[in-house]
Amino acid sequence: MKQVTLSKENILGLIAIGLFVLMSISVPGFLSSNNLTNMMFQLPEFGLFALAMMVVIVTGGIDLSITYTAALAGVAIAILSSNGYPIIIAILGGIAVGLLCGFMNGFIIAKIGVSPILVTLGTMVLFEGLILSITKGNSISGFSPEYTLIGNGYYLGLIPLSIIIFLFVAILTSVLLNKTVWGRSVYMVGSNPVASLFSGVNNSKVLMKVYLYSALLAAIASIIMTSRYNTVKVDLGSSYLLQSVAAAVLGGTEIQGGYGKVIGTLYAVMIFQMISSGLNLMGVPRPIVTVIMGVILIAVLIINFIKVKADENKQKKLAETA
Amino acid sequence: MKAFLKSKEMSVAVIILLLCIILAFISPVFLTADNLLDVVKGNAVLGILAIGMTLVIITGGIDVSVAAVTSAVCVVLGKTMMFLPDSPLTIVLIFVIAPLFGVLLGSINGILVAKIQIPAIVVTLGMMSIINGLVLYITNGQYLNSSNFPTVFLKFSNFSVFGISIIIWLFIITAALTWYILKYTLIGREVMAIGGNKESAVRVGINYSKVQIFVFSYMGFLTGIAAIAQTSYTKAVDPNGMIGLELMVIAAVVLGGANIMGGRGTIFGTILGVLLLGIIQNGLILAKIDTFWQKVFTGAIILIAVSYDHIQYKRSQKQLSKIEVEA
Amino acid sequence: MSEYLLQMLNISKTFPGVKALDDVKLEVKKGEVHALIGENGAGKSTLIKILAGVYQPDPGAQFFFEGKEAKIRRPIDATMRGISIIYQDLSLFPNLSVAENIYIGRDSDKHSWKKVDWALMEKTAKKALKELDFEIDVSTPVEKLSIAQQQMVEIARALAFDAKLIVMDEPTSSLSAGEVEKLYEVIFSLKKRGISIIFVSHKLKELFTVSDRFTVLRDGKYVGTYHANELTEEKLITLMVGRKILYEKNKEKAASGKTLLEVRNLAKEGNFKDISFELREGEVLGITGLVGSGRTELAQAIFGINRPYKGDIIINGQKTVIKSSEEAVKKGIAYIPESRKTQGLILRQSIINNISLPVLKKLKNKFLLINRRKEIELAEHYIQSLDVRPPLPYRAAGDLSGGNQQKVVIGKWLSTNPKILIIDEPTNGIDIGAKSEIHKLLRGLAANGMGIIVISSELPEVLAVSDRIIVMRHGRIAGELGIHEATQESIMNLALLGQKGKVREEAQL
Amino acid sequence: GCVSQQGAGGNSNSSKDGKDEAGGGDGKIKIAVVPKLIGIPYFNASEKGAIQAGKDLGVEVIYTGPTEADAAQQVKVIEDLISQDVDVIAVAPNDAAALSPVLQKAKDKGIIVMDWDTPADQSLVELSVHQIDDEAYGRHIAKSLIEQMGTEEGEIAILTGGLAAANLNSWIDAAKKELEENYPGIKLVTDKIATDEKQQVAYQKTLDLIKSYPNLKGIMAFSTPAPLGAAQAIQEKGLQDKIAVVGTALPKDSAPFLEDGSLDVAILWEPDKLGYLTVALAKDLVDGKKPENGQNIDGVGEVEVWEDGKTVIMGPPTDFTKDNAKDYDF
Ligand SMILES: Nc1ncnc2c1ncn2[C@@H]1O[C@H](COP(=O)(O)OP(=O)(O)OP(=O)(O)O)[C@@H](O)[C@H]1O
Ligand SMILES: Nc1ncnc2c1ncn2[C@@H]1O[C@H](COP(=O)(O)OP(=O)(O)OP(=O)(O)O)[C@@H](O)[C@H]1O
Ligand SMILES: [Mg+2]
Ligand SMILES: [Mg+2]
């Protein structure tokens, strides 16, 4: 029967809690309402990228074009709304553009079968080029005040709207992955695409939906970012690319595919957020923050490794005494 | 010859050839020796790193920390050169220091991948973050320029043999050496074997972790060489100058026919991949493509190249699985 | 000096939750062919992996090789002593040439920078291949070889390493009858040269053909070691399973109902051509032939994976184009592939997730979510009815032994309630007990109205389950035989020579 | 209807209290100076000046910024600064519009907001410190190029750091305007070419440019690494006398190229002074003082203040040439 054990995710959760306690004690101002709301405002966009990346990694792929997909969607929204279209139309237009990007990735990966890293490398450059040629490198703004509420507003005057959107998407992703036929197929295709094909799974449909979903999350991230920053530019969120891979992997997602959980990614994003905010509050130089993030990434995996080894030894001892 | 016609390199070669023909028509300058040498020289650093990456990718690994490691070596190299005397010995010394430091960083990657069994992309992502942060912290992004280097190094940078720059020679020698290792040494064959089938490799008694550590250390060694080439090329050290290069390195290798899952990849293919990327960059300006559309073209060419290559590959696989059907 | 080349004593091996081996012993004499047999999950593969240095036995094990105590900690220790293992899934490097595959592993560890002498390598390889009387260009990459050829390369590797003991784990499971004969010859010649062989197989006939002595395992325990002349097939089975089973030619009459599937002039370039046949409700159609005769390709074309083809597939009287495996499943076709580990199962996933995979869509509740309770019930149902051992639904499929894995695959496809079941090499690597269970199961399913196509290279099996037999040769149908006229000889005639025993119309009667 | 634009009033009150406490705690004024990114020579130089000003004037200076020139990262840095209860935030925005909401937030919390180096949303800032008048600067560079070319006819090209860099774009636009208005004989061969803020890319692209346009007479290079790469290409091909290069580079880095004429003039201001000025004016603001036109700032010199009372111009640009480059330490 199922045992309650220290899974990868549980360890990570403990680390996250530990970190929170540590930061609260040692960093003045960490528990201030100001800092807490800050973190809640900063987390959603990064979290959305990390989730989008995680879903792709579970299939054994990777999406390097994700931030430019978001930027392109943002450009569409900006152009539509600055041309006087209502917010809803602008948002839908942005999502449609995002989905189109996802479709392009999905088509070449799922139908033609080219490896994801190559395809998304190509589309990354392509999307960047498209944005450059549309915007001529300039930033576009001109969103309506209601639009900026999405990224800057509060729900009940207390909780940032964007974190609510993020949590909703996280729960949705979790339900989709764990409880739906598509979600199950994602894990199966990620574990062994040949066997899933031989089991009547339409791999290319599953993959196509994965890239569409990832693009959708990127578009949502884009909505939050553009409304928060009130502008869009070619490099909108570009620094999130490798960070989101790191967060997904830190969250326990296996880079070869087949395994990955929303909750793990959530913990990882929280850990990164706390480190970033906490160390900034302490006045640690930014480069050192980068160093520490790298150290944490590797350290957590070493901890996992040691734990697996320890478990094996324990099992052995148990077997010997039995 | 026949084998080559069917090989994966062939499709890249075809694309390069097509591009060359088009560019030759558009720009009379393109096919001049001068221009072609410039292209090779400008992409030598990319090439040297891509050659190391070929080995990593053949074993089924990946190293996204190459650009960061190269930057770190460049910085170390630049700082030490400020103290080195203006004598030929300095050149010898930098060829010891740079590769050694590269190997040191590379072997850390290797040990983490082999002994702790963390996936290569994760280890190297972490390393990239650590090294980039440290380099930025230590140097504060400060440039070192040629006035910081001994003149013997500047002479070395401008040195050429048979009219070919030393930087290109570094690339050629690296390629030849690596080709030799891959083809004629036991460890080279073990690299191929591990990529072909990891489980079999363990069963026939190949020391899997040793090979992995070797591959990452060798990658580190080549970042040392690449750092020398880079410093010679720009005659300056810019701690931020390599950011983002890792993706191009990986792209070059995979465009050259290496399989990202491991087992397949050749030095020749990688050289073609590097050339393809180099020619695209060069050609965009020669062809006077509008600035804002250059990236669109680059992206589109990469996508077409990889799709074409993959379709070719699938076709050849189909040929392979054919059986003789009686007429 | 003892008469034994190899002695493994007091061998136990515990996996988390399973005691795979419990105080087992294995003693192999010089120059003998020693059969290692037992039911699925008896522990044969585990024992061999211990010998190979892949697994470490539990403490207390004793190991003697050539009379001396030996420690085998890593695979290389075994290789260096002259123990060569030929695994069922082979240990070749598809991207390397034949010569390299034969040579590799030599000098590993110590001489990393040693120059590879390609000339010497090719010479060694050619010599080893010549000893096997097997001709092939040694520079061909191994991925271009057939399975049988690949096996020869493995054996050549063992010879090139001066192996004193060669272990073959189910070497014949992917070979055709002709190739099996060839393998026997090789085994006999190895034996003559004083090389000992441990032979693992579920095919009793061939075991009696080649083996001198038998070591029998049951449920991880040592049953005994016997001379071939002390044993009969029946006795051996009793030792293995504690009960008697044998299978014989099918005598039942097919209750042929309406036509479920009709294939007309199916052709795919480089795979097969002019394929026409029909499958009726309640019958079992056997398709046999040599390996590489295109049977798998044909089956996969019908299942929508091997596309595009020319010609027509007619299901229930309606012409259909099957574009994907998904559609095939919708149309009531199930296909159990020949390779369990790569195609049949998702090894890292649980038994539940494997069984439910093709029917997930039917397990949706009204919120469009998977009904986990129903899913578990479904898995438990098939675990019980097919007697999967151990009956732990949460266990990863990869932790099961070969036979139990096959049961999971079958369960997975039965869960879709297929009308047409195509099963490719159904009992590959499956013990005799489970085999006849599977045969019975197939007959039972047919009796309930399912149409079944059994693709098999094992003639006794084809004869035991089929109502009709199609023999393929070089991508074409060489002929069709009714069960009454079919014998091993008549099938082999068609498969090897293409001589038609009877015309098809007659055979159908 | 529960959604409101900004946090509950209680929030800002409490943090205001916090600020007062902090202010009373160590008594030092806290001035945060946020560059576009940290770790590049230009902003390192301004950091030096800012820190020096902190020492001279007895205020605490926090100099921090993103590690990439990314608007999102910069917003985070500012948000974290707000949590640290600083008195002034002076920012060089990567993207002015992107910072508006967070600067608004800072303002709401009682923090004085100003910009430096590159303008932010003018409705939010108390003060806008410019090294230079952008328009004048761009025109000056164009004129210098013509001067160095020695002719008013011929083909020229423009290199830029990134296509999306707003301040570079405004200089380039000014330079283009100058050429169009006063030098009709000059032909721009192609649109500005991006060099990714990397010297070796500028170098490679310049090589390609020289080949594609053999009659090229001049290159204007914007962003600090670009002139160096362009000059390097000229140096290597020995075209010092044929092609003139002017650009925005730091004197120390340009010295080797100025020496042999491969780079003719590097035109910039003294970024350390800009940092110093920013801090000095920030402190004045906290003390309730507004700058005046012609005011003399210790260590910087006379500054120009526009009529809006907000825009402060540090002074005319400095031309760094072969002769004076060695006198500067940045
Ligand atoms: N890695 C493993 N982890 C856990 N249990 C294992 C593992 N490998 C084997 N087992 C268990 O050990 C037992 C013996 O398996 P083994 O593969 O040796 O059987 P076998 O005799 O080779 O069977 P088959 O004929 O089906 O191949 C089985 O119960 C199997 O489930
Ligand atoms: N694992 C493999 N590697 C390389 N080639 C293979 C492999 N399996 C089959 N082939 C090749 O594919 C072709 C068709 O084989 P196919 O499997 O269709 O034959 P088959 O009649 O189904 O035989 P079987 O099912 O017994 O393998 C043959 O040329 C064979 O050599
Ligand atoms: Mg077995
Ligand atoms: Mg087959």
Automatic annotation (TrEMBL), chain A:
- Key words, A-Z: Cell inner membrane, Cell membrane, Membrane, Transmembrane, Transmembrane helix, Transport
What's the domain of life for this entry? Answer: Bacteria
Which residue ranges traverse the bilayer? 12-31, 51-80, 114-134, 154-175, 181-198, 210-230, 288-306
The membrane topology term of the UniProt record is: Multi-pass membrane protein
Task: Give a yes or no for keyword Transmembrane in this entry.
Answer: yes
Say yes or no: keyword Cell membrane present: yes
Location in the cell? Cell membrane
Pfam families per the UniProt record, alphabetical: BPD_transp_2
Q: List, alphabetically, the InterPro entries matched.
A: ABC_transp_permease
| Descriptive protein name | ABC transporter permease
The taxonomy runs: Bacteria, Bacillati, Bacillota, Bacilli, Bacillales
Automatic annotation (TrEMBL), chain B:
Subcellular location as annotated: Cell membrane
InterPro entries tied to this protein = ABC_transp_permease
One Pfam family per UniProt: BPD_transp_2
Q: What is its main location?
A: membrane
Q: How does it sit in the membrane?
A: Multi-pass membrane protein
Keyword Transport present in the record's keywords: the answer is: yes
Q: Transmembrane residues, as ranges?
A: 12-33, 39-58, 90-113, 120-139, 159-182, 211-229, 241-260, 267-286, 292-311
Protein name (Swiss-Prot/TrEMBL): ABC transporter permease
**What is the species of this protein?**
Aeribacillus composti
TrEMBL record, chain C:
> Gene3D superfamilies in the record, alphabetically?
P-loop containing nucleotide triphosphate hydrolases
Q: How does it sit in the membrane?
A: Peripheral membrane protein
Q: Which InterPro entries does the record match to this protein?
A: AAA+_ATPase, ABC_carbohydrate_import_ATPase, ABC_transporter-like_ATP-bd, ABC_transporter-like_CS, P-loop_NTPase
According to its UniProt record, where is this protein mainly located? membrane
Determine the domain of life of the protein's source. Bacteria
The protein's matches in PROSITE patterns, at most eight in alphabetical order, are given as: ABC_TRANSPORTER_1, ABC_TRANSPORTER_2
Give its localization.
Answer: Cell membrane
GO cellular component assignments: plasma membrane
Q: Which CDD domains match?
A: ABC_Carb_Monos_I, ABC_Carb_Monos_II
| Residues in ABC transporter domain copies | 6-244, 246-499
Keywords of this protein's UniProt record, alphabetized?
ATP-binding, Cell membrane, Membrane, Nucleotide-binding, Repeat, Translocase, Transport
Which SMART domains would you find in this protein's record? AAA (SM00382)
Any one GO MF annotation of this record:
ATP hydrolysis activity
Q: Which Pfam families match?
A: ABC_tran
Name of the molecule in the record: ABC transporter
Q: Which organism is it from?
A: Aeribacillus pallidus
Task: Give the source lineage, highest ranks first.
Answer: Bacteria, Bacillati, Bacillota, Bacilli, Bacillales
